[in-house]
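=== Per-residue structure ===
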Amino acid sequence: MNKCLPGLRLVLLALTLALFAGNAVSATLIDDFSDFQAIDNGSDGPLPISGSDLSGITRTLTATPFANGDTSEVVVEQGLLTVSNGSNGGFASVIYSFDTIDLASLAGAFVLATEFMDLSHQVQLIANGSSIFGFTDLGLGEHIIAFTQFSDASVFAHLTSLELKFQGTDAWDAQFRLLATNGNSVPEPSVIALLAIG
């Protein structure tokens, strides 16, 4: 009987992996900032972007300084989104439009990775032009912004646009390297395997 236990454990492990492998959901990539685009005081786009998991996606950049003669700039290149402003600060936006998607069925939050930022910098996210995640200070690292933190989470069932809006009252700079979703919280096969082996 004891000789059969190792074989039985392997069969159970294989069945467990087969059961969960089909259900694991990976993150949805919105933008890895690899398609070059830049604007200095004004707007640029819409630009079709490659590599995104969203169908028909385009990106528009806007940069507006608070004071005349000042400069606001947004640059996307080599995997980084860089936003910078002159001494009086300003607004900048990255606006995405895409084919309608039920993002709520695929994920529960956005992941925004910050490489660098000044203290005077704040970020706002706007879904479908109306559902708002208010301006907030973000530190360095990966930030999880849940759909439930928006003013109307129901829009994620039929999402067609997303805006990243930046502001700061003094001269400020910020860099970001990824915009994606976190995927559904279904255990990955490797986690299940570890649990089954244990």
